[in-house]
Amino acid sequence: MIEARKVWLRYTPSQEWVLRDASLTLAPGRIVALMGPNGSGKTSMLKVLAGLIKPGRGEVLYEGSDIWSMDESRRLQARRAAVYVSEKPVMVRGTVMDNLLLGLRLRGAEPRQARDALDRVVEGLGLKGMLDMDARRLSAGQAQMVSIARALVLKPRYLLLDEPFSHLDRARRRLLAELLEELRGEGVGIAIAGHEELYTLELADSVAWIESGRVAMQEPGSVLI
Question: Looking at residue 54, which CATH number applies to its domain?
Fold first, then answer.
């Protein structure tokens, strides 16, 4: 489980607080939707949960221990368990396959060790005919799918997705939704920040409404106010 407890965050001392006394829990096998207007703090909360940003106040707990009080080795393990996928994916030079294997190579793993995971995401996200394409010539929707697949190949315990449906057509949205449902059933904890209420809210077990840096938890299907 990952928990943000009473987190306050701002990026510079002179800036307004981006997150204000914000708490959120991401549990295995659950999907939480982070909803709210642009600039409300959704992306910042995902990065806090991923251990990418240290809050100014509050705690971020991974399996009960504060990430920022861990030694470097344990913190690295926690960060590898939770993978953040940006709304604006960056493709490195090379083919789609090169990009899918990037995370494994950075971790020193042999590609064959994750062959099953690779085959699954390629099939599940409809990427089979794209593997030899130049990754930097992909459309926004194609790059979004490759970025998500690149994260899934790492077999994360927690998946933190920033606007994952934003550049996808209807067919790709359905493929992604189906795969996320499968992952939830296998115990992966998933947080989705988004504006695509139809897909995001259909998947969600709980909804975190974020506005002006504050979090209010609501049940799926309730009116967001």
Answer: 3.40.50.300
Q: Model-level pTM?
A: 0.90
Long-range contacts of 3-7 (CB under 8 A, 24+ apart): 3/59, 3/60, 3/61, 4/45, 4/48, 4/49, 4/55, 4/58, 4/59, 4/60, 5/58, 5/59, 5/60, 5/61, 6/57, 6/58, 6/59, 7/45, 7/48, 7/55, 7/57, 7/58, 7/59, 7/60
Q: How many domains does the chain have?
A: 1
In a domain, 224, yes or no: no
Statement: residue 61 has pLDDT above 90: yes
Give the range of the structural domain holding residue 181, as residue numbers without chain letter: 2-218
Comparing CA positions, the residue from 190, 209, 218, 219 lying closest to residue 2 is: 190
Judged against a pLDDT cut of 70, whether residue 162 lies above it is answered with yes
What is the Cα–Cα distance from 175 to 146, expressed in whole angstroms? 13
Q: Is the dihedral of CA 76, 78, 79, 83 positive or negative?
A: positive
Q: In DSSP terms, which residues pair with 60 in a beta bridge?
A: 4
- Residues 1/21, Cβ–Cβ less than 8 Å: no
Q: Mind listing the pLDDT tens digit for each residue in 120-140?
A: 888 888 898 999 999 999 999
Residue 223 lies in a domain: no
